[in-house]
Amino acid sequence: MLGKEQYEIVRASSGPEALRRILEQEFALVLLDVLMPGMDGFETAELIRKRRQSRHTPIIFITATSSNENHVGQGYSLGAVDYIYKPIIPEILKAKVQVFAELYRKTLRLARSEEALRLELREREKADAARVESEEKYRKLFSRASDAIIVYDEDGATVLDANKAALDLYGYARSEFLALTASDLESGKSRGRKTGADASEGGARSFTGFHKTKNGRVFPVETTCASVAIKGRKLIMALTRDVTERQKAAEAELMQEREAMQRQLVATVSHELRTPIAAIRAANETLTMGEVDNPKIRGRFLKIIENQAARLGGLVEDLLLVAELESGKCKPVPSEIDLKEFCAELVPGIAVLAKKKSVTIKCDVPAGLVATVDRSHLTGIFQNLLDNAIKYNKKNGSVFVSARRAAGAIEISVRDTGIGIPADDLPLIFQQFRRAPSVRELQIKGTGLGLYIIKTMVDSNGGRIWAESAPDDDGTVFRFTLPEAKA
Ligand code: ADP
Questions:
Q1: What are the per-10-residue average pLDDT scores of the chain (487 residues)?
Q2: Cβ proximity of 325 and 457 under 8 Å
Q3: Which of 312, 316, 350, 392 should be mutated for ligand 1, with most atoms under 8 A from CB?
Q4: Between 1.20.1640.10, 1.10.3370.10, 3.40.50.2300, 1.10.287.130, what CATH number should domain 247-327 receive?
Q5: Taking the CA atoms of the chain, what radius of gyration do you get in angstroms?
Q6: Ligand 1 center to residue 37 CA distance, Å?
Q7: What is the CATH superfamily name and number for domain 15-113?
Q8: Residues having CB within 6 Å of any atom of ligand 1
Q9: Model's pTM, two decimal places?
Q10: Cα of 164 vs its chain's centroid, Å
């Protein structure tokens, strides 16, 4: 009669069965026949009402029209919401059931949205509590931080707030501080860098500069700025640290290092000079002790004196160049140099000298490689590397010069087929006076300053130099990079 498609209908043939079903699930409406065998409709209704989950389930009694009014009154007192009289008229039954079904659906919907609302409210409360806690935490951090924290307006200039460390560092009272702008704190030495402007470009930024206190003391600072959004407002937070002590410590350390290096240099230079001076003295003594009249001995000792004097001269020249490079007087004057043309001019002259030692130089530099480099430095670098490649080569050995583009720069290599360098010494040979023990044993002349000079020149021209063992351990490859000239 009700239409199965619209409702889920559960039938019970007795009062106890109806109670069981009601325990198992929730119902929108109970249609209860008053006259049932055993437990009648009223008893069943009474028990339905007593149970918690069905206390409010609407009940419609179905009864014969002949029932007297007492009956009806009893039904209502037991929680009936309506009566349907037999014989049942389908339209009336449908209409009444529809009303209760709709009511149930609405109640369900209401309950669901109430639950969602409750959940949302709880989440919001939690978020509020977390926000309050985090704000509290930040406030504590802000006021107790040992670094100065200053909050600027979005423009990065107007001071909005400052913690105690900031007031102490700059020496202002709070009211004075809040009337300042960023430029009042910066010293002229800071080269006009705007604290806030830097951070407002996005994210956090750190930079160093100079600030000044209320009484004019200028001090170095390290500042980190971050743009933060507080209550929808964009602000700039700057954390500033006075790095005077740190700078002093770093300078003292640097000074100590320099002094140690100077002492080491003086010791090494004295040592390097002592050998040729001793040799010259000994040769001179021999000559003055009478051997000067013996032409053979005189010739040999004069040669010793000449060689050692040349060695001394070479040492002094290299030392002067080192001093000049280190003093910064020898700053590179870069120009655009076509490497193919440069090698075509320089290499043939050196190749003639190489030939005297039976060493061949081969050059393979492609056209179109233009480097930005100081010409006299590049000449010095090439001359030194080629001199070494010839000096430390074997008889009938070769030297290969090549160049290519690599990782946005130009890479030049000078490879030889010489005595090679032990792998452990490869990174060390660029240090002052560092010579491989084998070259001393082989009595190959040198000052141990050439590679140091080359490295200083390559570095100052914006390049990098390193050494590798040639493939199959047959000699050495020196590679260096130079910036490529922009087309
Ligand atoms: P030196 O005046 O001794 O040649 P350098 O500074 O030019 O001084 O070189 C330092 C050391 O590096 C040399 O003494 C030598 O041991 C090693 N060395 C440099 N170039 C080469 C090379 N092409 N082959 C082998 N060893 C080399």
A1: 76 89 89 84 87 86 69 74 84 87 89 92 92 85 88 87 94 94 82 46 75 94 86 85 93 90 83 88 86 80 91 89 84 95 95 93 96 96 96 95 94 96 91 85 84 95 94 90 91
A2: yes
A3: 392
A4: 1.10.287.130
A5: 49
A6: 119
A7: Response regulator (3.40.50.2300)
A8: 388-389, 392, 416, 418-421, 429, 434-436, 439, 446-452, 476
A9: 0.54
A10: 31
